[in-house]
Amino acid sequence: MRRIHEPTSTDDPVGSARHTPAPVGMLGPDRNWHLGAGLMTLATAGAFTIWAFAYAGTHVNALLLVLALAFGLFMAFNIGGNDVANSFGTSVGAGTLTMKQALVVAAVFEVSGAVLAGGSVTETVRSGIVDLDQMQVDAPAFTYIMMSALLGAAVWLLLATRMGWPVSTTHAIIGGIVGAAVTTGLVTGTGGLAMVQWGEIGQIAISWVLSPVLGGVAAFLLFGAIKRRILAPAARAIALGSRGFDDGDDEDDADDPEQARHVPGYERLTELQQTAFAESAELDRSPGSPGAELVERAEQLTKKQRKAARNVERKAAYHALEKRVPPLAAGAAVVIASMLMFKGLKNVGLDITPWGGAVLLTMLAVAVWIGTRVFARALRTQTISQATFIMFSWLQVFTACAFAFSHGANDIANAVGPFAAVLDVLRTGTVSQEAAVPMAVLVAFGIALVSGLWFVGRKVIQTVGSGLTTMHPSSGFAAELAAAATVLLASVLGLPVSSTHILIGAVLGVGIVNRAANWKLMRPIFLAWIITLPAAAGIGAVAVLVMRAIF
């Protein structure tokens, strides 16, 4: 994690320029990271190609298999650049993880999620969106449809990623399949628009509104509570410091009779004035800012009043970390563990009864509660700002790792599903209802996810981490936890939602609490959500026509 006093370009422009390493050649200061990620990607693609030819057999059409490999890895690469980047945007934007640390976390947890829980079999026809049985599609036509769907979804994801728009990869692959299948049906005279399950398309349209609203409401309520009950005392303590904004300069912390109550006025500060500046190295003191208002109020008090009030607020801030954060952390652990048990680990074959699951979750909650309280007590040696930053940073690291594992276990299917179907057809010559997913496919596609995050994911990370609203560890943690809880609840209730849209809604919910949501940026993102399915369908339609002409 970044340290709280890490200098930024706004702290000392001259000093920052002086200490910024000069670019190294055309690849810049991250030359070694670029080369390492590039070599890892090339080595994976080469080894995977060799394995695929051995697995498919000597009778396979070499050009078709090479194209299938390219389209599949390209799709996984762009899922990493858009969907994985979306998941890590809050952590990087909050300063909890650097881009390089996010890459390492993704490499460990995305790949392990894909390998351990990515599934041993996958349905060849995704989501029941298109009735391919109605077409009586043969093996070659089925192969062209799935390959075109992969290409259509991947190209659209790359375009959206370059614009910094986080979109649903599930909707993209569905659009690709719809476009390729309907076009094939029209060309061959075996089907058309009647093959499309329009009720399923309607549910996708509902998710455009339902998902961000649910995520936004959950994050608004959760972060609002965190801000009022945990962050407000810390912010007030900093503002009441003996120099007006420094919480680490006690001259004398002896008890004072006036500590029995808050100084009038401070217990009536508005939410805006109690904003989460406790997570920064110092308050924002620019004219008109909440920090400036707090400092101005503090300056109106006598030294004795300010010191007495500050001691009260410092005690309240440490008390909040020790008493209110542990149950929050325990609840987060239960939500994340439940999501992993019921979604991420559903394909591992673990047979956990409801009673056994309840016992495991209870034990986990108790352990996290006790551990977090011990950790909070240890943070009393830190200043208020440092203690608050460190506490929520570690909580956010936990949620980021869990999200990465769950993402690798679930959303990698958007690339693995169609590719595994194509590989199975090329190997057997027939279309099966289910196709095996070899371990090599999960590993290769998991590495492609990480590569996409590093090479093309920065614009999406910027959009989610700072474009829609400013993120801090507490707000990032609240957004991630609210999104996880919403995804879990929607899964239980069977609601048509998108995890990507939910997380974006959660980020906006945080922005609404801070009165700093960037609605102007949200307009093109919402438009991108709407056109994802038709755009991927259009590209898939063109791709399938080209493939049928070539082969």
UniProtKB/TrEMBL annotation:
<keyword id="KW-0592">Phosphate transport</keyword>
<dbReference type="Pfam" id="PF01384">
    <property type="entry name" value="PHO4"/>
</dbReference>
<keyword id="KW-1133">Transmembrane helix</keyword>
<dbReference type="InterPro" id="IPR001204">
    <property type="entry name" value="Phos_transporter"/>
</dbReference>
<feature type="transmembrane region" description="Helical">
    <location>
        <begin position="35"/>
        <end position="56"/>
    </location>
</feature>
<protein>
    <recommendedName>
        <fullName>Phosphate transporter</fullName>
    </recommendedName>
</protein>
<feature type="transmembrane region" description="Helical">
    <location>
        <begin position="325"/>
        <end position="342"/>
    </location>
</feature>
<feature type="transmembrane region" description="Helical">
    <location>
        <begin position="204"/>
        <end position="226"/>
    </location>
</feature>
<feature type="transmembrane region" description="Helical">
    <location>
        <begin position="354"/>
        <end position="375"/>
    </location>
</feature>
<feature type="compositionally biased region" description="Acidic residues">
    <location>
        <begin position="247"/>
        <end position="257"/>
    </location>
</feature>
<feature type="transmembrane region" description="Helical">
    <location>
        <begin position="62"/>
        <end position="81"/>
    </location>
</feature>
<feature type="region of interest" description="Disordered">
    <location>
        <begin position="1"/>
        <end position="21"/>
    </location>
</feature>
<feature type="transmembrane region" description="Helical">
    <location>
        <begin position="525"/>
        <end position="550"/>
    </location>
</feature>
<feature type="transmembrane region" description="Helical">
    <location>
        <begin position="435"/>
        <end position="456"/>
    </location>
</feature>
<feature type="transmembrane region" description="Helical">
    <location>
        <begin position="172"/>
        <end position="198"/>
    </location>
</feature>
<keyword id="KW-0472">Membrane</keyword>
<feature type="region of interest" description="Disordered">
    <location>
        <begin position="246"/>
        <end position="265"/>
    </location>
</feature>
<feature type="transmembrane region" description="Helical">
    <location>
        <begin position="102"/>
        <end position="121"/>
    </location>
</feature>
<comment type="similarity">
    <text>Belongs to the inorganic phosphate transporter (PiT) (TC 2.A.20) family.</text>
</comment>
<keyword id="KW-0813">Transport</keyword>
<feature type="transmembrane region" description="Helical">
    <location>
        <begin position="387"/>
        <end position="405"/>
    </location>
</feature>
<keyword id="KW-0812">Transmembrane</keyword>
<feature type="transmembrane region" description="Helical">
    <location>
        <begin position="141"/>
        <end position="160"/>
    </location>
</feature>
